[in-house]
Automatic annotation (TrEMBL):
Residues passing through the membrane, by range: 106-124, 144-162, 183-209, 229-252, 259-283, 303-323
Region annotation Disordered: where it falls in the sequence: 1-63
Top-level taxonomic group: Bacteria
Pro residues biased stretches: 34-45, 53-63
Source organism of the structure: Pseudonocardia zijingensis
Keyword terms of this UniProt record: Membrane, Transmembrane, Transmembrane helix
Protein name: ABC-2 type transport system permease protein
Compositionally biased tracts (Polar residues): 1-13
Amino acid sequence: MTTPTGQGTNGQAPTWAGPAPQGPLVPGVGRPGPGGPPPVHPQGVPPVAAWQAPPPVPAPSSVPAPPPVPAPAVGGPFAAASRRTPFPTLVLVELRKLTGTLSDRILLALAPVVLVGVTVLIHTGSDYASSYASAANQIAPTFYTVRVGHVLLHAVLIKLIAGEWQHRSAQPTLLAQPSRARYFLAQATVVLMLWFVAAVLQLATTLIVAPGAVSGVGATYLLGYRPGWVIGVCVLGSLLTILVALTVAMLVSNAAGALAVYFATVPVMLTISGLAPQVFAWIDPSTPTAALATLAPVDGPGPVIVSLLLWIGLLGLAGYRVARRDLA
C-alpha cells in the first residue's frame, strides 16, 4: 500500500499496481500507446529498443600496427643532394681542375707550341739527302719527336694527378660522390682526351712538315705510300709516353716532386738509350714504338714484351696505391 506522497508504508519504493505498460520504454520519447504506432524520434531516427545490445567492440590486437611508410620525396631541399652525380659532370670537374691555376693555363697554351716547334726542328735538322734515303730514316724524326715533344702536356697532367693528393682537392670530389672507381674513371677520361689531342696534333704536324723537309734536301718522300705506318708511330708513341707521365704522377703524391722526377728521368732515359741501347731497350717504355718504326736496337719480341710488362706492372702498382691512399 502506498501513501499519497508516493512512499510505501514500510519505507520501501512504490510499486505499480495498474496494468502493465504497452511497448518498450524509449528514453526521452515515452512508451507507445496500446495498439498504436511506435513513437517517432524527434530527429526522425527510429528509436533503438532498450533491450537491444550494443554492437561488440573488437578487442585491441596485442601486435601494434606498423607505422606508415612515408612516400618518397619528389622535391624539396634534399632532392638534389640525394641524386647521383652524372658521370659527364665528373669529367667536367676534372677538366676544370686541369685549368684551375694560372700556371696550368700557361702550360696548356705553350704545350702545342712546343710540340709543333720540336717537330719542325727535328724534321728539318738535316741538310743531307742521305739522311732520308730510306723509309726508316724518314720516320726516325717522328719517333724522336714523340719521345720529347709532349713534355709540357705531360707536366699539366702530372700537376693534375699528383696535386690532387698534395692539396687535398680530391676531398670535395669524393665527398660529393664517394665512389673512387667513378673518380678514377673520370680522370682516366681526361687522360685519354689529352692523349687524343696530343696524337692528333703530332700526326697533323708530322704529315705537314715531313714531306717538305724530305723534299727540301732533294730526297723522295717515301712515307706518302705508307700513311698507316706514320699514324701507328704517332698514336702508339703518344700513348706510351703519356702512360709514363701518369705512372709517375700516381706514384709520387706531390706535384713538385713528381715533376722533378719526371724531368730528371726523361733526359737520363734518353742518355742511357744512346750509350747502351741494347741494354736499355729491355726497360725503355718506348721500345714498342721503336720496334714499330723498325728502329729497335734488339731484334725480336723479347724487349717489347718485357718493357710492356714492366710498365703495365708499375701502372697497376700506382693504381693500387692511389686506391688505398688516405685523404686525411
